[in-house]
Each structure stands twice: as C-alpha cells, then as structure tokens.
Design brief:
By secondary structure, the protein is α/β, with parallel strands linked by helices. It folds into two domains: 98 residues, Immunoglobulin-like, CATH 2.60.40; 331 residues, Glycosidases (TIM Barrel), CATH 3.20.20.80. It contains ten helices and 21 strands. Strands 1, 2, 3, 4, 16, 17, 18, 19, 20 and 21 form a ten-stranded mixed beta sheet that branches. Strands 5-6-7-8-9-10-11-12 form an eight-stranded parallel barrel, surrounded by five helices. β11, α9 and β12 form a beta-alpha-beta unit. α6 crosses α7. InterPro entries: GH (IPR017853), GH30_C (IPR033452), Glyco_hydro_30 (IPR001139), Glyco_hydro_30_TIM-barrel (IPR033453), Glyco_hydro_b (IPR013780).
C-alpha cells in the first residue's frame, strides 16, 4: 500500500509539472514587450516596468508604430560620451570603491549598468582640460623626438585601462583640438592654421599617438583630423578649411598611416550640420577618397538631415555623430527630450553609426576648463562630488540606447508618427529594440506592430521609452 501511495504521488507530481510547463509554453508562444521609461519630472529614471505588454491581434485604435526588421540600414558602433581630461580627473580622484562602482555602472549592462560602448578622447588638451598642452610642445621638433603622452599617465590612461578591463570591445575615437603651436601660422594654441611645411610632421604626430596609446593597451579605432575645424575661437582650437584637410589627407596623413600599417580609421570634418559641403568636397577628391572612412558631425548649427545628404552623395562612406553638449543651466526634461529626439533618434535615422554626448563627467563647479574659450557651462553625463554621483539628462539619453543596442546592432525600419519620434534596431542576439520620445503635450498611448501583432504602450508627455522584445 505504501509503495502504491508513493507511485500515485509521483504520477500526480508529473501531471502537475507538465500542466505548469504547458501553461508556460502557452504563455511563451506570444512574445511580450518589456519597457524602460524615463519621465521628464524624474518620477521614473530608466525604470524597468513591472508588466510586459503581450503582442496580440486586437487594435485599440491608438497610433501604430510599425517595425519592419526585414528592412535594414546601417550597423551601429556604439553610444557614449567624450572622456575629457577633466572627466578622467574627476573619476580618478574618487575613492577606489566608489570609482569602481561608477565605472561598472557606466560601462557594463548588467544590473543597473548603462553599457557605454563608444568613447571619444581628446588628442592633447581639449577646452575641458585644466591646462592647454599637446604631446610635443618643443618648438621646431619636426622629428618628434620629444613626443610624449606622459601627461595622460596621471589620470586618463589609468581610467581608460580600467574601462578596457570592463569592456575590452569599446570603440575609441581620438580628436585633436589643435596641432602644436609651433606648427601653426600664428604660433598660438588658439586659432591659426597648420603650416603646409609641417603636414608630414603632423601626420607622424598622429602615428606616434596611435602607437603610444596601443603600447599602454588603449586601441584607437578612429581619429578625426580636427575638432570643429571652422571654429578658431576656442581654447585650444585650430582652423582647417576643407581644401586644407583634403591636402593634408592625400599628401601626408593617408600615406603615413599606410606606410605605418595602421588600420585606424580617418574621419573627416567633426563639426556642425550646417556645412555638409565640407566633407563632400573632400570626398570628391579622388586622391583623398581612398584614405577616408567617413564623416563626423555636431549639431550646434544646421539640421540633422544634413548627414543623409552626405550619405546619399557618398553611400559607401560612414557617418558618425561625435558631439553635443548638455547645458549646465538647462532643464532636465527639456535636455532629455530634445537630445533623445535630435540625436538618438535623429542622428541614427540619418545614417549615423554612433551617438556621443559631450563630456562624460563634471563636478559641481563645472571645472576644469581652459581660460579664454573653455566651456564653463558644459554638464557631464554624471556629476561627481567626492563619492557622490548625480545622474544628469545625458546619462539617460545615452543609457536608453547603450544599455540595449549593442555594437553590431542594425537599424531597421520603423514608421514615422507625428510627435512619437522613434527609431528601431535589431541586436546581434536577435532582440528588437524601439526607442520612442513622446513629444505630445499630453500623455500618449500607442501601439507597436511587429509582423502583424500589436502591443500597447503608454508614455507621459515628453517621456522617453525603450521597448525590447
């Protein structure tokens, strides 16, 4: 009797487990859409919603965003920030435990991490450095015997080495704010142009930079030739007209990279969307064209669709979005909505392979910055005050993409809906990701259509949502 009792219990347990499994399988047959939301009043901050939205066949009559993963566009290299000299100092001066926790949050995706996957570094000082310097400030040193990145060993290199331990695949872009002053027409860090007689020496300056960074374990995936080449008023800065950049590439930089066997990409322009003719005129130069990977843009002037004009003219060359600031005197909600709309959605819909906001970290005083032209109003992705960290608007702008859209993802088609600005991707793991900004003055319910199945979502006015299924 006892044996029969145990046999009966055994078969009943099998029946119960089978019934539960059947329910799970039945539920799993219909995919569900998970959501992460940030509201402009900070009531939700990249907050995972507890209930996923199942896909079904019922249309509730609200606007529909159609996602078509079969229609594909550019691959994505990553989302991130510029790690300025000042940003590196803020991080490196944190207590060790706080620093480690912050870097894991910024560069990993697990737990609460946002998974930054792309960084821009200044080659020498930027205007958010404590002082102006290049890697060879010895006048007349055309053989670059005094070239050294030793100054970066203080903060930048140790921070980058730790970041690369966390994420060895992160892409790194280097951008100079100026050539050494002795190479320039005005012998100054501010303004002036590169003298043609120093084109070859300056090309070797880039070669030495890439090799020196590699020697300390920091691979430079790409360089731009000059940050904001049409703006000579910053400190530091250098003016480089399109004709000068074309000449420099074809006679000096391109041949130098080729002779050195470097695979580092050469990217044009690195300035505003109001002058797409700048990179296009260089790409029209048949001698310069083979050395060029693509063109980079900022958005302090012009409109983001300028990037598509370059793509349409030169579809085999890549596009990058490399800088947009966040205003230290700005409003969190306005910065969140505006930059997600114009950059995360706008730049990627216009063929950009990345989106970078300016300045990874700041301190409460928004220092350091250079005198006579340095930005005293640039707010970092996070503000660091000792061990305390405040997450600002651009942290969430980048986080809504970087956490979910891994490098190697591909932008896919999604319908344009009035005031529901959006962009969609498919990841290397096969997940679909849709980022939506509600630019309606009221809360908005909408539907996501994937292959004839509909899921319902809702966003508060000027909120941002990332949807994954």
């Amino acid at each position: 009797m006892r044996t029969n009792k145990y046999i009966l219990i055994y078969f009943l347990s099998l029946l119960l487990v089978g019934n539960v499994s059947a329910q799970k399988n039945k539920k799993g047959d219909a995919p569900a859409m998970e959501a992460w939301i940030t509201n402009p009043d900070r009531s939700a901050l990249l907050q995972h919603q507890s209930q996923a939205s199942p896909f079904g066949t019922t249309d509730n009559g609200t606007p529909v965003i159609n996602v078509n993963a079969k229609e594909r566009f550019q691959s994505i290299d990553g989302f991130g920030f510029t790690l300025t000299g000042g940003s590196a100092t803020h991080i490196h001066q944190m207590p060790a435990a706080a620093q480690d926790a912050l870097l894991k949050e910024l560069f990993l995706t697990k737990d609460n991490g946002i998974g930054i996957s792309y960084l821009r570094l200044s080659i020498g000082a930027s205007d958010l450095s404590a002082e102006v310097f290049t890697y060879d400030d010895v006048a007349g040193d055309t053989s670059l015997q005094h070239f050294s990145i030793a100054q970066e060993q203080v903060d930048l290199i140790p921070v980058m080495q730790r970041i690369l331990q966390l994420n060895p695949r992160i892409k790194i872009l280097g951008s100079p704010w100026t050539a050494p002053a002795w190479m320039k027409t005005n012998n100054s860090f501010i303004g002036g142009s590169l003298k043609p007689e120093f084109y070859r020496a300056y090309a070797q300056y880039f070669v030495k930079y890439i090799r020196a960074m590699k020697a300390v374990g920091i691979p430079i995936d790409a360089i731009t030739i000059q940050n904001e080449p049409l703006h000579g008023g910053n400190n530091p800065s250098m003016v480089m007209q399109a004709s000068e950049q074309a000449e420099f590439i074809k006679t000096a930089l391109g041949p130098a990279f080729k002779a050195a066997g470097l695979k580092t990409k050469i990217i044009l322009y690195d300035h505003n969307c109001d002058k797409p003719e700048y990179p296009m005129s260089i790409l029209a130069d048949k001698a310069a064209y083979p050395y060029i990977d693509g063109s980079a843009f900022h958005l302090y002037g012009g409109t983001i669709d300028a990037m598509s004009k370059v793509h349409e003219a030169y579809p085999n060359k890549h596009l990058y979005f490399t800088e947009q600031w966040s205003d230290g005197k700005g409003n969190f909600g306005r910065e969140l909505t505006g930059n997600t709309t114009r950059l995360t959605v706008g730049a990627t819909r216009n063929w950009s392979r990345n989106v970078l906001q300016w300045n990874l970290t700041s301190n409460p005083a928004l220092t350091p910055h250079t005198d006579k032209g340095g930005c005293g109003q640039c707010l970092g992705g996070v503000t660091i005050d000792g061990s305390n960290v405040t997450r600002n608007s651009s942290y969430y702008v980048i986080g809504h993409a970087a956490k979910f859209v891994a490098p190697g993802s591909v932008r896919v088609a999604s319908s344009v809906i009035s005031n529901l600005d959006n962009v969609a991707f498919i990841t290397p793991a096969g997940k679909k990701v849709l980022i939506v900004v509600n630019n309606h003055p009221q809360a908005q319910e909408f539907q996501v259509n994937d292959n004839g199945k509909l899921a319902v979502a809702r966003l508060e006015s000027h909120a941002v949502g990332t949807y994954v299924w």
